[in-house]
Amino acid sequence: MAEKEEEVCFKKETVSKLLCSFFKEDNTRCSDATLLMREMLKVFVQEAALRSLKQAEAEDCNQVEIEHFEKILPQLLLDF
What HEC string does the chain produce? Predict the structure, then answer.
């Protein structure tokens, strides 16, 4: 199985809309926060994928399943 390193990327507009949806005032700007949140989401997704892979390997599985992700999710959320 060939390993391919893919870059995790979130669209700036998507993250901006997500962040701004939580603000009560319409004139709140979140330009710098959007860049930081994109980086945080990138790290979170990469860490989730890596931990899920390690969980699958620990169970001698050839493929990562949703069950592996579900097992690592509680600790992942506590760590972030």
Answer: CCCCCCCCCCCHHHHHHHHHCCCCCCCCCCHHHHHHHHHHHHHHHHHHHHHHHHHHHHCCCCCCCHHHHHHHHHHHHHHC
In terms of pTM, does the model score above 0.90?
no
Higher-pLDDT residue of 68 and 27 is: 68
Residue 74: its pLDDT value, please?
A: 96
pLDDT tens-place string over residues 37-67: 999 999 999 999 999 999 999 999 999 999 9
Q: How far is the C-alpha of 52 from the C-alpha of 65, rounded, in Å?
A: 8
Query: Helix 31-58 to helix 12-20 angle, to the nearest 10 degrees?
Result: 100
